[in-house]
């Protein structure tokens, strides 16, 4: 018996354990473009914070670096943008859902001492049963960028300082998130399409 010829694989066949290649490539392109354009976006931040904390200012405020709770200002800055806030100290996760059931996650880490901050935005969705995360760094200041790899700016731990400086940091992060919610997030959602309503990574 002559074996039937094998059917050609569809162009958008999912990779083993991954997204369909065209979708994966398109998401990676959007991430690269937004990382490359981050410096321009940082010029719109309301506070031009130095990377080093000025000891005189810290002494005058009467507060040690990292003093005070961090969550209230995160709630103040991000609740009006539709984000919840989970965590009490060290690491905070803020989430919102898009109209297409994707989850936008803000990861804000201040460490066990609360003295420095690192933050990221992730757009999390599912395509053909495969979950994905599109991740961008969130810089606390235009001076927070400490280096790059192949033209991509890398975030660093940014010193928090006193309560006033933390408030300014959260204002800067919120300004970035507003801009990215209007550009980066819908661009990813347009590529991936809607995710299943039951897919809720924010609950894990």
Your description of this structure?
There is one protein chain. Helices cover 32% and strands 21% of the residues. It has one domain. With 204 residues, it is of the alpha+beta class. Helix 1 (21-36) packs antiparallel against helix 6. The model is unreliable at 1-16 and 55-60 (pLDDT under 50). Strands 1, 2, 3, 4 and 7 form a five-stranded antiparallel sheet that branches. The N and C termini lie far apart (53 Å). Strand 2 and strand 3 form a beta hairpin. It has helices at residues 21-36, 38-42, 55-61, 71-78, 163-182, 184-192, and strands at residues 91-97, 103-109, 116-127, 130-138, 147-149, 152-154, 158-159.
Helix content, binned percent:
25-40%
Q: What are the segments in which pLDDT stays under 50 over at least 5 consecutive residues?
A: 1-16, 55-60
> Which sequence of SSEs, written as H and E, runs from N to C?
HHHHEEEEEEEHH
Number-wise, the strands total: 7
Largest sheet: 5 strands, antiparallel
Rg calculated over all Cα atoms: 20 Å
Shape: globular
Through-space gap between termini: 53 Å
β-strand amount: 15-25%
Number of domains: 1
Structural class: alpha+beta
Number of helices: 6
Mean pLDDT: 84
Using brief descriptors, characterize the structure shown:
5-stranded antiparallel sheet, alpha+beta, 6 helices, single chain, two-stranded antiparallel ribbon, 204 residues
């Amino acid at each position: 018996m002559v074996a039937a010829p094998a059917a050609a694989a569809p162009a958008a066949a999912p990779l083993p354990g991954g997204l369909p290649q065209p979708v994966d490539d398109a998401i990676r392109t959007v991430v690269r473009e937004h990382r490359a354009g981050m410096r321009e976006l940082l010029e719109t931040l309301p506070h031009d914070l130095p990377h080093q904390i000025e000891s005189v200012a810290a002494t005058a405020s009467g507060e040690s670096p990292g003093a005070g709770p961090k969550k209230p200002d995160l709630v103040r800055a991000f609740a009006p943008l539709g984000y919840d806030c989970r965590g009490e100290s060290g690491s905070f996760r803020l989430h919102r859902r898009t109209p297409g059931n994707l989850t936008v996650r803000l990861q804000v880490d201040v460490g066990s001492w609360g003295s420095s901050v690192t933050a990221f935005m992730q757009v999390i969705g599912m395509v053909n049963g495969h979950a994905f995360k599109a991740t961008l760094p969130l810089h606390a200041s235009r001076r927070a960028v400490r280096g790059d790899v192949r033209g991509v700016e890398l975030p660093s731990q940014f010193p928090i300082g006193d309560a006033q400086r933390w408030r300014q940091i959260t204002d800067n992060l919120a300004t970035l998130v507003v801009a990215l919610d209007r550009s980066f997030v819908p661009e990813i959602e347009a590529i991936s399409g809607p995710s299943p309503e039951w897919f809720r990574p924010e609950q894990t």
